[in-house]
UniProtKB/TrEMBL annotation:
CDD domains: CYP97. Heme binds at C467. Keywords: Carotenoid biosynthesis, Chloroplast, Heme, Iron, Metal-binding, Monooxygenase, Oxidoreductase, Plastid, Transit peptide. Its main location: plastid. GO terms for biological process: carotenoid biosynthetic process. The keyword Glycoprotein does not apply. This is BnaC08g10110D protein. It is found in: Plastid, Chloroplast.
Length: 522
């Protein structure tokens, strides 16, 4: 059961000994210094009912933009307020680290950028940023379209086989979540590692190991007690044994790739890279910029997230045939029968907006995680409080991107899928300290970003630790979606309500995103 109440009003009514004990722990942990903060209290069982991020939304409606979530012995501060989020992510970014997230990811990503402590992060971010140069991205559009084409050809082949074998064969059923997952893995393999996973068309031990590792990362992000830190667990617990063997397969593969990159490196390559001459470079991948831990980080960060964006874009579009037709009219006008190029991406405005609107409704990940490195005072939020709450050192913070993106305080019809919303200009709702929504605040940007909505829109985070692959992922998603809709009409196989959400690092469809693909009649 869930008990929600504000500490400003009544004492919590504890129903059993366990709850009493957890309240005691919570109070000890938070030391009373979070005392005036509204509090939502949950029982351990709440973690198994529905995804946590959905419960955080209900509590946001009840308790407002900053509240404390007490879960047994754990207490988190949940932020759903753009002014406070901006403070934590940008204005005061170096007073926080990745806390729980770093603990979970460190065994997998080591000192990679996502979990990295501040000192490591500063060095590595500086080294990696040049790798995502605009000309590199331009060169990658070809990789995106080549890989997407393989996915389309595979679907067309299945369709043909069906046409031959049955009369009602103009439609195939596919789990698009799985297809997009393979596609995104192939793309990240080629563009970051210069390695062809070939997962759209076949399975390999490395792919299986990558999935196994992602699966474990997800398990760790939702499991209560970090038993994996207890060394014998590696040998005793079967899933931990499997995790260790998966890691070994990936590490051996990465070592091979790094070795290969070293051996085949030609001095002229370095010159071409320095001159940003990607078109004449045999291997334009990022291998030369990255260390092992960064490679692993890119593999995980760049694969699941992009696949999830495409999956939810299809889910939303499939419920809106008029929007599919509008998208297809744009694709026909811009691309005809051809493949997208960097130049044509600029003209695919509606497809780009579909991608960002899908990220608004289904942000990946739905929560950002931080921990205070010193005592902090949060700013007052959208309700106009002059000063916010004091939080002690070591406080765990969730910034709920999902809540921000669906907040009725900052968006019209927040639960509706309306890609066109990003074209509107809007006043600030009179909220002091929040600059409001204004696309002209980010001139020249191909995609709407956190600046235009002053941190009420955070699909890639914000501030210094903002996603390094944002443009890469957005372009990749635009290309893949455009190429799918160019050839097919898409419907969900069952009613939308039958698609069940589960969340780990990203939001998944529990039983896949089963869709009907029908060849487009022109
Ligand atoms: C960080 C989202 C694709 C690499 C982040 C963060 C978010 C995010 C929200 C910030 C995390 C935080 O503040 O705690 C996404 C989404 C993607 C995507 C939604 C796809 C649609 C990619 C790709 C790559 C990538 C394709 C690399 C090729 C990274 C890295 C960081 C990061 C390295 C850490 C940056 C740092 O701490 O300096 N991503 N990402 N991401 N992402 Fe992405």
């Amino acid at each position: 059961s869930i008990r929600c109440q504000s500490t400003n009003t009544k004492e919590p009514k504890s129903s059993n000994i366990l709850d009493n004990a957890s309240n005691l722990f919570t109070n000890l942990l938070s030391g009373g210094s979070l005392g005036s903060m509204p509090t939502a209290e949950g029982a351990v069982s709440d973690l198994f009912g529905k995804p946590l991020f959905l419960s955080l939304y209900d509590w946001f409606m009840e308790h407002g933009g900053v509240y404390k979530l007490a879960f047994g012995p754990k207490a988190f501060v949940v932020i759903s307020d753009p002014i406070v989020a901006r403070h934590v992510l940008r204005e005061n970014a170096f007073s926080y680290d990745k806390g729980v997230l770093a603990e979970i990811l460190e065994p997998i990503m080591g000192k990679g950028l996502i979990p990295a402590d501040l000192d490591t992060w500063k060095l590595r971010r500086r080294a990696i940023t040049p790798a995502f140069h605009a000309l590199y991205l331009e060169a990658m559009v070809k990789v995106f379209s080549d890989c997407s084409e393989k996915m389309i050809l595979k679907s067309e082949k299945l369709l043909k086989e069906k046409e031959v074998s049955s009369r009602e064969g103009d439609t195939i059923e596919l789990d698009l979540e799985t297809e997009f997952s393979s596609l995104a893995l192939d793309i990240i393999g080629l563009s970051v590692f210069n390695y062809d996973f070939g997962s759209v068309t076949k399975e390999s031990p490395v792919i299986k190991a990558v999935y196994g590792t992602l699966f474990e990362a997800e398990h760790r992000s939702t499991f209560y007690f970090p038993y994996w830190n207890f060394p014998p667990a590696r040998w005793i617990v079967p899933r931990q044994r499997k995790f260790q063997s998966d890691l070994k397969i990936i590490n051996d593969c990465l070592d091979g790739l790094i070795q290969n990159a070293k051996e085949t490196r030609q001095e002229t390559d370095v010159e071409k890279l320095q001159q940003r001459d990607y078109s004449n470079l045999k291997d334009a991948s990022l291998l030369r910029f990255l260390l092992r831990d960064d490679l692993m980080t890119m593999l995980i960060a760049g694969h699941e997230t992009t696949a999830a964006v495409l999956t939810w874009a299809v889910y939303l579009l499939a419920q809106s045939p008029a929007k599919i037709r509008k998208a297809q009219a744009e694709i026909d006008a811009v691309l005809g029968e051809g493949a997208p190029t960097y130049e044509s991406l600029k003209k695919l405005e509606y497809i780009r907006l579909i991608v960002v609107e899908s990220l608004r409704l289904y942000p990946q990940p739905p929560l950002l995680i931080r921990r205070t490195l010193k005592p902090e005072t949060l700013p007052g939020g959208y309700k106009g409080e002059k000063e916010g709450h004091k939080v002690p050192k070591g406080t765990d913070i969730f910034i709920s991107v999902y809540n921000l993106h669906r907040s009725p305080y900052f968006w019209d019809n927040p639960q509706e899928f309306e890609p066109e919303r990003f074209l509107r200009t809007k006043e600030s709702n009179g909220i002091e300290g929040w600059a409001g929504f204004d696309p002209s605040r980010s001139p020249g940007a191909l995609y709407p970003n956190e600046i235009i909505a002053d941190f009420a829109f955070l699909p890639f985070g914000g501030g210094p630790r903002k996603c390094i692959g944002d443009q890469f992922a957005l372009m990749e998603s635009t290309v893949a979606l455009a190429m799918l809709l160019q050839k097919f009409d898409v419907e969900l196989r069952g009613p939308p309500e039958s698609v069940e959400l589960v969340s780990g690092a990203t939001i998944h469809a529990k039983n896949g995103m089963w869709c009907k693909l029908k060849r487009r009649s022109k």
